[in-house]
Every structure is written in structure tokens, then in C-alpha cells.
Structure prediction request, 410 residues.
Amino acid sequence: MKAPNPTSKTFRYQAIDRTGKLVKGEIDAATLELARLNLQKQGLSRLIVRQKRTKLARLVRSKHSQETTLFFRKLTTLLGAGITLTHALGIIRQTTDDTRFQAVIDAIKADIESGQTFADSLARHPAKFSKLTIALVNAGETSGTLDEMLARISDYGEKSARLTQKIRQAVRYPAIVLFTAVVVTVILLAKVVPIFSEMFATMGESLPLPTRLVMALSEFVIAYGAWLLAVVIGGFALWTAGRRHAEFRTRQDGWLLRAPIIGKLVLHAINARFARTLATTFGAGITLVPAIISAGKSADNAVFERAASQIATDIQAGSRLHTAMQKANDSLGRTVFLPMTMHMVHVGEESGRLQEMLEKAAEYQEQQVDDASEHLTSLIEPVMIVVLGLLVGGLVVAMYLPIFSLGQAV
Prediction:
């Protein structure tokens, strides 16, 4: 099987098809010229092709989108019913609403009809299908168990998506509350406090210290608010750009694993994804070393990827998996592979049921993510409400203190 081209890019296009209809979509190609050539082969004309800009990476990412997972689930069902691969692709194409994904399916179907393997045709679309997915499909085609392998891919995608959703739900609420608190505070300081300041200026009375502090903060926000916003946006841009550099990305991911409360949640999630990926790839007949490399990359954490790479090297040198995992922990000076994960790996190696124990380890860690998410939500919710109340309430009370003092004097 041909390896996916690491230099492949995604291009957005607008064109006219053979029927004269305007069509839009995306295509993967190494260069703009190849993208145009491939589109022309599909009978498209009057092309407008531009390279798609890269979106900002999210905290937790997965190439198994809901769309691709559903694609493989449908394909599993159709192949299981005895329908041929090309016919099944045609059926799925008709039931897909996304025009961009329709174009991908059309290209895959055309490649297969021209004699390419399913894995090779998927490899031409790295923006849609991960290297792990392509490797599993290749293993299924080679062993004659494609329908079984597609079921594995579907299960893996669905469980990975659920795991990602749990983490997003855990961090979404505090993020929304924090953002709301900042916006409300800025509005009060920039719009409401100046009204009180003008009123107090006519009173000629000495103002309490909290009131003077709030008024000074209001003046600062009004005078330098745009600069503060620019600093925040610039800092975020630098933080994001820094992830392109391996050393800085490793430090960022290390900070994330050590972060209070959220670090524990992320560590459980990474262990779950590592165990789930390793169980899927190893169970598919992929040898242990490349399976570990794939599992390390699935974690989307540079520290974990480095640990997986070290484990693969140690296994090639004759070490056992659980021993190499413990060595990776020791060399990093931190617990990356959690004790329960390593214990289940040890039991799996001793009993000859490594895949089964890896699946159990993944299920256990996923349950820990559930518990940690609930704990995080129950812990942060009252704290954020109190902080929001103190912040907004403190500003309001500070601005009414002179009025209260004036009322007492009268």
C-alpha cells in the first residue's frame, strides 16, 4: 500500500459540472496544479481553486469525525449484507448530504474501479482519513476481513468521539461562565462606572477606597482596553503558533498534564485513547511496535508521543510492554501511564490476552473520565457562581458606597 503523502494539502474549489450546475467542495492534492488536474478529470470546468487555511487546533482532536465514523458504519452494514464495495459506496454517496464528502466518495469509488485498493484510495484523502484508519483498512484487505475491520474502525471512532465529547462538556461550562464574567465586568467598567464617576464628581465628597479603586480600574480599561485585547489575541496567536515547534509543544502538553484538576481528567482520557487505539490496532494484526506508535499519536499529546516512541524502541530491543511503560514513566520523571493501565497490560502479557486487557483498561479509564468530568463540574459550578457573584456584586457595592454614606450623613 502506498503511504499517505505527508505534503498533501486541502484545496477548496468552485466549478461548473457537465450539466452546467455550480458546484463547490474540497479536494486533497500535493499541489494546486494537481488539484486542478484532478478536478478537470472529473469533468469540471471554469475552476476557482484556493488552498484551504488551517483551522486552529482544538484542545482535544480526532480525525474520526461524526461524518467519517458514520461512513464506515454504513459501509460495514452494506458489506455485511453482501453488497460489493463499489455498489456500497454508490449507495452511501446518495444518502450523504455534504457535497464535499460526496466528492470524496466519488473519487474513492473511481480509484477502486480503476484497480486501486480501498486503502490506497483512502490514503489520497489524508484530511478525511487518518493514517491509523488507512492502516486498519489495509490490514483488513490483506487478511480478507475488511467488513470486520470496518466494524472495528466504526467502534473506535464512536468511542473516541464519546470520549472527546465528555472532555468538551467538562470544560465548556466553566469556560462559558468565565467568559460571561469577563464580558459583564468589562461592560460595567466601561459603560456603567463612568456614569457614577460623573455623578460623584459633582458631589465634592471624599470617596471610599473601594470606589476609588473601581473608578481607577474603569479609567484604565477605557484608556487601554484596545491594547489589552490586542495583547490577549496576540498571546493566544503566539501560543497557537508555538505548537508548530516540537519543543514548545512538548512544554505546553506537559503543563496541561500538570494542570490542577483538568490535568487528571486529560491524563485519564489519554490513557483511555492509548489503550483503545493499541487494542484496535494490535487486534487487527498490526505488529506491536507500529501499533504503539499509532497509539501514541492518537493521544495528541507531545509528551505521550515521546513516551510511546521510547516504548517502541525498548520493545525492539527486547523489553516487555509493561516494563517499557514503567521505564518511560521513570525517564520522564512523571506518571504518564497510570498504574491501572500498566497493571492490566502486565496481566494481559502474562495471560496471553493483551488485546482483551487493553480493551478493559480503555473501558476503566473511560469510566474514570466520566467520574472526573462529573466531579469537575460539581466542583467548579459553585466556585464559578461565587466568583461571578463576588466580582459583579463587588463592583456594584463599591459604586453604591458613596450613596450609602451620603444617606447616613443625611
